[in-house]
Amino acid sequence: MQSILKLFLNSKEITKEEIINLNVRNILVVRQHNQIGDMLCSLPLFAALKKKYPDAKITLVASVTNYNIVYGDVNPYINDVIIFNKSTLFHIFRFLRKLRSVPFDLGIVPSTVSMSRTSHYINYISRAKIRVGVKSINGKYNKVDYLLNIKSDFQWDKLKLHQTERNLDLVRQINCDLTPEEKNNLRIGFSEKEARFADDFIKENLPDKNKKIFVFQPGAGKTQNRWDVKYFSELISLLYKKYNPYILINSGPIDKEVTEELTKALSEKGIQNKILYKSIRVVGAIIAKSDLFISNDTGTMHVGAMVNAKVIGLFGPTNAYEWGPLNENGAFIQSKSRDINDITVEEVFEKACELLNK
């Protein structure tokens, strides 16, 4: 079956001249990995596309999530989103009708995490004239690369490249790139309303301007990415004794149990804290005004990096060189054993003091 599909669907090779002369009005990006961290790490890809094709409309194909997410809150370069809902034949037909209604000039499958056959078929079915992706990743062959007409072999693990660079590598194949300065300046911008909300929140809840503001993210979507609550409690106790800061605990939809446990542990130590339960952009605006942000390996950590906070990311099984905060004020601690709970309180405390003294 695979060989028959390859015979009929094999894509025509594209020359550099054809790429240069292509009038790009509509760009499709098929990216089903749509957690916050994935999306923020793919921002450079979208920014590079917009830089080269400023008048083009960029459409994202994303899968259905189990939580509410407004893509424009995270990625300002997206003009439209088509949700791939495969729950019923009706939803599939409606998706295909919308997909085929736009004459796409470029279709991109950013396979930086995994190589999805479905994503490649969606890209092909869209009838995009030029389809960009990977031929292989770290020695693993893309079995549907015949659906692409621009593709390369990438050795990202060997080079220990960050996800932002992996995403950029995909579009560098079509001469889309960012300068180092453009990458460094890629930040989440806040509206006047959001910035004012953050100012008002701090003024009302954290009124002493002489006290520092420390924010903590004890939750994470994956259990193996969560540093134990007792360690967060011990760390906050040490930092509280040294700096006497305001303590904010960020809590997302799945973090309630963890944040309640941490709040109880801090209360027993006589340490007051405030729970943050706001939209991702409002949380980002508050983190931007904080003095320190310590987070598990989760989406909010990437938000902290994107607002250039003094952020420390804690990493267990995930490669910190691939997913860690890249901003000038960012740092990470990778567990040597790949068990996040082998990171010691003393390690994080020392790193926090080092960042605060910068």
Describe this structure in words.
With 358 residues, the chain is an alpha/beta fold. It folds into two domains: 2-184, Glycogen Phosphorylase B (Rossmann fold, 3-Layer(aba) Sandwich), CATH 3.40.50; 192-356, Rossmann fold, CATH 3.40.50.2000. Helix content is 41%, strand content 18%. The chain is built from 17 helices and 13 strands. It has helices at 2-9, 16-21, 36-41, 43-52, 71-74, 89-100, 117-125, 156-159, 163-172, 180-184, 192-205, 229-243, 256-268, 280-287, 299-306, 320-323, 345-356; strands at residues 26-30, 57-63, 80-84, 106-108, 130-137, 140-141, 150-154, 213-217, 246-250, 274-276, 292-296, 311-315, 330-334. The strands form two sheets. Strands 1, 2, 3, 4, 5, 6 and 7 form a seven-stranded mixed beta sheet that branches. β12, α16 (320-323) and β13 (330-334) form a beta-alpha-beta unit. α12 runs parallel beside α17 and α14 (280-287) packs across α15. The model is unreliable at 1-5 (pLDDT under 50).
Compact description:
41% of the residues lie in helices and 18% in strands. It is an alpha/beta fold and 358 residues long.
Low-confidence stretches: 1-5
Tally of distinct domains = 2
Strand count: 13
Rounded to an integer, what's the Rg over CA atoms? 22 Å
The percent range for strand residues is 15-25%
Q: Compute the average pLDDT.
A: 90
CATH superfamily of the largest domain: Glycogen Phosphorylase B
Q: How many DSSP helices?
A: 17
Q: Roughly how many Å apart are the termini?
A: 60 Å
The name of the CATH topology of the largest domain is Rossmann fold
Task: Please give the CATH class of the largest domain.
Answer: Alpha Beta
Main sheet makeup: 7 strands, mixed
CATH architecture of the largest domain: 3-Layer(aba) Sandwich
Secondary-structure content class: alpha/beta
Helix/strand order, N-terminal first: HHEHHEHEHEHEEEHHHHEHEHEHEHEHEH
Q: What overall form do the CA principal axes indicate?
A: elongated
Amount of helix = 40-55%
